[in-house]
Amino acid sequence: MLRTTIKNSGLKAVINHKGAELISFTSKDNIEYIWEGNSEFWGKHSPVLFPIVGTLKNNQFIYKNNTYHLPRHGFARDLDFQLIDSKESQAVFSLKANEETIEVYPFHFELQIWYTLKKSKLTIAYKIINQEEVTMPFSIGAHPAFALPKAFENYSLVFEHPEVLKSYQLENDLLSDVTVSHEMNANKLPLTYPLFEKDALIFKKLNSKKITIIENEIPLLRVQFDDFPYLGIWTKNNAPFICIEPWLGYSDTVHSTGNISEKEGIQFVEPKQTFACSFSLEIL
């Protein structure tokens, strides 16, 4: 399985060419911050969600009166990317539309993913290039899982700003109208497994663009997601990881018409144009 490693004086990141997936992010003292991918809990590390985030109603969408079928989170995470540029501290991967993708997502596109290390930070940038003569609807999201080697209750998430935390619950993998409020203490959300008994916490609106993972009040890692309006937070019961997921889009709602151009949270890139966004992981 092809992998590419990038590094600087303090950090190292390893990216799998399948899905252009980050599978390791370590500090100079060799502490691993990315979940190992043990399939007993969840066999992935940090998949890229494209051209949809979450689940479509009946796993299908309508575009120009035609129906197309897409699995949960799309196809990018399961396809091989090409390494198109590589330096010591940067690697650029590309996925282009092909006959297989056009059958399920009828657009000619290129998805580039740029991994760049600088000082204590890994920046992950997405470029969605529309090669069509028509506007292209899409969503993209990150799904990094961060390793939590100690007992889960030792960890909390600290939000950049005060929040009235209200997450939307899933109903048969679709976004319902049911919301749950979460108690915070000084911008801090303590992690417990019962938080996730109804699956992911999905936030449509946050004041914060930075979330810090702390272990017994010691800051470990910060996720910054200025370009992403939506966020998912997720783990599985008894699993030693937490996912902090910046999204441009989310699952269909229970009220969805199926028309992708009317989909809540959908993004658009104009003909022959490029949409760019990025987020970063910083070791503290």
Structure summary:
With 284 residues, this protein is mainly β. It is built from 1 helix and 24 strands.
Would you mind describing this structure in some detail?
The chain contains one helix and 24 strands. It has 284 residues and is mostly beta strands. Strand 7 and strand 8 form a beta hairpin. The longest helix has 6 residues, at 99-104. The chain is globular.
How would the blueprint of this fold be written?
Elements: E1 3-7, E2 11-16, E3 21-27, E4 48-49, E5 60-63, E6 66-69, E7 82-87, E8 90-96, H1 99-104, E9 109-118, E10 121-130, E11 136-138, E12 140-142, E13 145-147, E14 155-159, E15 165-171, E16 174-182, E17 188-190, E18 201-203, E19 210-215, E20 218-224, E21 230-234, E22 241-248, E23 267-269, E24 274-283
Any key phrases for this structure?
six-stranded antiparallel β-sheet; mainly beta; about 50% strand; about 280 residues; 24 strands; nine-stranded antiparallel β-sheet
Helix coverage percent: under 10%
- Provide the residue-averaged pLDDT: 97
Topology pattern, helix = H, strand = E: EEEEEEEEHEEEEEEEEEEEEEEEE
Number of strands: 24
